[in-house]
Amino acid sequence: MPDRPLPPAPSEQHQLRRYLEAAVQEWGVTYWHEDRNWTSANGREVVCGWGTYIDRGSQRVPIKVWFDGLDHDIAIYGEHRRKDEYAEWQDLAVMSTVLDEVINVLDRMRQPVR
Length: 114
Prior knowledge:
five-stranded antiparallel beta sheet; globular; alpha+beta; about 30% strand
């Protein structure tokens, strides 16, 4: 089933995207957005949210930052959501703190594997 138009983005999503774009531009890395509002044909699966992919080079899976339009939380994940490549923020009450934490996690995850 094709994606439907997205609902209006919450203010936290706008803040997240602005913050992410500033950081990745400063880092000089490639990124792209993939926003989804989709329901499966049987109605059992629903995806609604705003995603940003951050490139880590040809040998590694991009980092995905996802603002969930259903739960209004933020998740970051890389390779198959491994524990060391996954972080989530459900409480967005102090958005400035959340944004700083998001950038710190992204900076750690984009470093070369040793």
